[in-house]
């Protein structure tokens, strides 16, 4: 909700635990709840803006007002929910096809037709090669400066600078090839070349009944 022009595809898992009619009813209910949430958000933002504008000293709240107006301008496109049975490979392929169909929609993603500079592709290919090499640990964590030095060893990337690399990493982060938390101080110098490792870690740490399982340990 804080990212301008976001596009969200809700995905409902465990469809195999419900009858077909239940899936339809739950899908309708979830989409109705999302719609109500967006309406409430818009109403709350308008209420906060009105309060600031009607305060006795509005000049003291300029920063808050600007932030709220910025959030008001952030549009959020919600696509139709996709219900999947994660144990059925056919459903996973169906989800994949749905995502690709939406991503190729120029109305939803105007940048899909943007032509990237050749250096973006060259860095992407080089990073894939580095990630697959034996010298990289399974966790795929690599220091940003070290990654730059490795990339610079490629003839066509000899003149690659840190600032350009950071721009390219932002793009590769957006498309999911790497993960780079540049906004987190303790992680800004670390690039995760294997996003699947993070997913595995999160699955171990953030899961159902985790608190109860930890509390059961003497």
UniProtKB/TrEMBL annotation:
InterPro entries linked? P-loop_NTPase (IPR027417)
Name of the protein described by the UniProt record:
MFHA1 protein
Q: Which species?
A: Leptocoma aspasia
């Amino acid at each position: 909700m804080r990212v301008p022009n976001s596009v969200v595809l809700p995905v409902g898992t465990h469809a195999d635990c419900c009858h077909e009619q239940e899936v339809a009813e739950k899908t309708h209910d979830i989409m109705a709840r999302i719609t109500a949430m967006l309406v409430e958000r818009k109403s709350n933002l308008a209420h906060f803006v009105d309060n600031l504008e009607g305060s006795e000293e509005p000049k003291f709240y300029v920063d808050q007002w600007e932030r709220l107006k910025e959030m008001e301008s952030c549009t959020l496109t919600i696509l139709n929910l996709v219900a999947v049975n994660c144990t059925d490979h056919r459903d996973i392929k169906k989800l994949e096809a749905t995502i690709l169909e939406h991503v190729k929609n120029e109305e939803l993603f105007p940048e899909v037709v943007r032509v990237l500079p050749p250096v973006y592709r060259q860095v992407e290919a080089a990073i894939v090669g580095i990630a697959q090499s034996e010298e990289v640990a399974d966790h795929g964590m690599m220091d940003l400066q070290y990654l730059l030095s490795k990339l610079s060893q490629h003839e066509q990337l000899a003149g690659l600078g840190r600032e350009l690399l950071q721009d390219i990493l932002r793009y590769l982060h957006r498309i999911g090839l790497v993960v780079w938390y540049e906004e987190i101080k303790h992680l800004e110098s670390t690039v995760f070349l294997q996003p699947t490792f993070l997913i595995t870690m999160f699955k171990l740490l953030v899961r159902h009944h985790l608190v109860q399982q930890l509390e059961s340990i003497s």
